[in-house]
Amino acid sequence: MCGIIGFVGKDEQAAPILLDGLERMEYRGYDSAGIAVRSEAKGLQVRKAKGRLKVLSDLTQGGAELEGVLGIGHTRWATHGEPNDVNAHPHISENGQIALVHNGIIENYLELKEQLLKRGVKFTSDTDSEVVAQLLEFHYNECHNMLEAVGRCLRRIEGSYAFGIICSDYPNALIAARKDSPLILGYGESGNYIASDVTAIIKYTREVSYMDDGEIAVITSNSVDVFDDELTPVDKKRSVVDWDVSAAEKGGYAHFMFKEILEQPEAVRRTVSPRIKDGRVVLDDLDLTADYARGISRIYMIACGSAYHVAVVSKYNWERLLRRPVEVALASEFRYSDPLVDEHTLVIVISQSGETLDTMAAMREAKRRGGRTLAIVNVVGSSIAREADDVLYTWAGPEIAVATTKAYTTQLVLMDLVGLYLADLLDSVEQAEYKAILEEIQLLPEKMDQLLEQVGDVQYFASRYFNHTSIFFIGRNLDYAIGLEGSLKLKEISYIHSEAYASGELKHGTISLIEPGTLVVALGTYAPLFDKAMSNVVEVKARGAEVLSITTESFRERMEKTADASVVVPDSHPVVQPSLGVIPLQLFAYYVALQKGCDIDKPRNLAKSVTVE
Ligand code: M6R
To answer: Which portions of the chain are predicted below pLDDT 50?
Structure first.
């Protein structure tokens, strides 16, 4: 969704840095962009443009047209007001003194706008964000002190925000504020930064602080001062981001999604290896005792989108290992469902970005009801990671493509490790099974590498099937769970209608949709139910379906007798098998979208991190 960057330098020009930072956040999804730069000679200069960032870059000659060492930039994903140049950020106050960029939603903006209109303030855009620029000017004119004015303004607004602000009276200061929308402070050699996403500034600095809710920061080229909502100074801890710059770059690949699919063996290795010692799962960051585990009466797994599909897989696996009931819930449903959470409830929250608003709100609701929350998150220092009682990171590295791949598989494998860990505490898993699963988890990177050698086969099948307008994914148990993910991947990037069904459900309705030529992707990797799954393949074949199967080495021969085409994945333990079975589905979606000429990394209407409800 929206992206913010700000820079205040000693001598270095701001505009090219702002444009570069915005380009690195393009993956988040946006529909317009803008920058504001302040110079001694020209005051505040603002340029905005609807559409791709290239338009803004051309308009400013790559930033060269705007002189000044202080500036803010924004990519907008429209919420209030259509995507156009006027509604794009930065927003400028009426007398042109203040420029502001905003991520989030101001809930009481209409009420505030009404009050300002009565005072004669003129508005140019339809946005909630412009109201804050105008309100800020109003308070600044009252007190003539920017920090004080920001404090007064924040006390009047309701909603979520990350703000970047510059004022023509402050030639060397950038002001930032945050509540419920991420904002990072970056400490650089040639100046200091703000950004909503670490990828925007990682090329320039790895030293960062994460702003907390209610904080306001005043940033100059050689100082960063942070205050709480009472304007009392706060000491901020600095952290070093260990992501490699190249991890957030395409590095010669046509798409981030493809690069990230290929990065899965390494991402899984990074997530797993530090957590296995002497044949046992070691979760140093997790402080759960056997006593606590024995007192758990209910486990919830809460997430959105693909992260929710990880929960669906993990429910099967954890119930097998823990012999405890696990409920999976879509975060957007959970938060309004009057959920049965108390102090004996363990709530697992799964999120790549750690900023998904629905997931965060569901987590807060669970905490409010007394549940203990454990977050599985990829982005270090993200809001969910900081608010959860416990956090375990997937070490997938930056994931840029909107369609998640390496975050999904690292979440799967980390959930398996946590499941084993809890099962061990509860003594609910046979040691032989524990050992077998752990061994297979350790073998995953190698088996993934082996599987990725078949990229060409999947590419061929995609070229054969990309013209289908409706595609079904069927499977049982864990195969059904990964079918959900395969179907979502295909829908989001290729725009082909698709549905995933538990194969046993076909006869209860869906099989009526199968007609000669319908493409069915049949998943047959879950060994305990392979025979049952096979009967369903036979059923759809009998009605004329074209079947592309995903199966294992062990079942290849039997599957190939019926299916029209097969992709074969290495055998593994059933608990671990989904981490392999899902990869051909990711590749299939990728190659189908490629054949169709879709914008793979930035599919229409979607954003990488969904920070609105
Ligand atoms: O950052 P999160 O994991 O919380 O995001 C959740 C979903 O928005 C995300 O998984 C989405 O479904 C992906 N685009 C799927 O590829």
So the answer is: none
Kindly give the distance from the C-alpha atom of residue 577 to the centroid of ligand 1, in angstroms, as a whole number.
Answer: 22
Report pLDDT digits (tens) over 450-506.
Answer: 999 989 999 999 999 999 999 999 999 999 999 999 999 999 999 999 999 999 999
Q: What is the pLDDT of residues 124-164, one digit of tens each?
A: 999 999 999 999 999 999 999 999 999 999 999 999 999 99
Instruction: Please list the helix, strand and coil fractions of the chain in percent, rounded to the nearest 5, in that order.
Output: 40, 25, 35
What are the CA-CA distances from residue 77 to residues 32, 436, 472, 606 (Å)?
Answer: 7, 47, 32, 10
What distance in angstroms lies between residue 79's CA and the mean position of ligand 1's atoms? 19
Return the active site residues: 2, 608
Q: Are 15 and 5 in contact (CB under 8 A)?
A: no
For ligand 1, is residue 579 a contact (CB within 6 Å)? no
Count of other CB atoms within 10 angstroms of residue 280: 13
Q: Which two tokens stand for residue 499?
A: 């549905």
Residues paired with 100 in a beta bridge: 91, 165
Question: By alpha-carbon position, which residue is closest to atom 11 of ligand 1?
Answer: 305
Residue 77, Cβ density class (10 Å: 0-12 exposed, 13-18 middle, ≥19 buried): buried
- Number of other residues whose CB lies within 10 A of the CB of residue 92: 21
Indicate the top mutation candidate among 610, 611, 612, 613 to test ligand 1's pocket, ranked by most ligand atoms within 8 A of CB.
610
- Smallest CA-to-CA distance from 258 within 491, 609, 601, 604 is with 601
